[in-house]
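sry for the spam today, last one i promise. struct tokens for design, 113 residues
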């Protein structure tokens, strides 16, 4: 009986964690859409305008570049990735520092998927 309860409890925890992860993904996907990130970036395939989120995650996986990437999201500019130019603030929806950190965490998390 104790073993059954333990398995049911663990199973519930795992389902709850999976549900929370799915909710976070949906929230971050929505934030990326609201901030127009998806106008230039795709999830899987690089475009002529910008690298994919998966390419960014692979390039910076395990690196200490989190703060740098947050600054790129906040400031835009060029020379971050080949000839791709990220729109400057004012040319795209405003992104707060907290939102930039969330987006970078989400993108870098794709390297673990």
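last one done:
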């Amino acid at each position: 009986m104790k073993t059954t309860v333990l398995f049911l409890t663990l199973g519930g925890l795992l389902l709850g964690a999976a549900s929370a992860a799915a909710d976070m993904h949906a929230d971050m996907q929505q934030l990326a859409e609201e901030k127009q990130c998806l106008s230039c970036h795709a999830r899987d395939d690089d475009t002529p305008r910008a690298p994919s989120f998966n390419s960014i995650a692979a390039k910076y996986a395990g690196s200490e570049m989190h703060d740098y990437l947050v600054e790129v999201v906040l400031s835009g500019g060029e020379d971050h990735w080949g000839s791709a130019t990220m729109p400057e603030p004012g040319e795209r929806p405003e992104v707060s520092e907290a939102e930039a950190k969330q987006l970078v965490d989400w993108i870098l998390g794709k390297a673990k998927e």
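The CA atoms of residues 26 and 34 lie 12 Å apart. ok im logging off now
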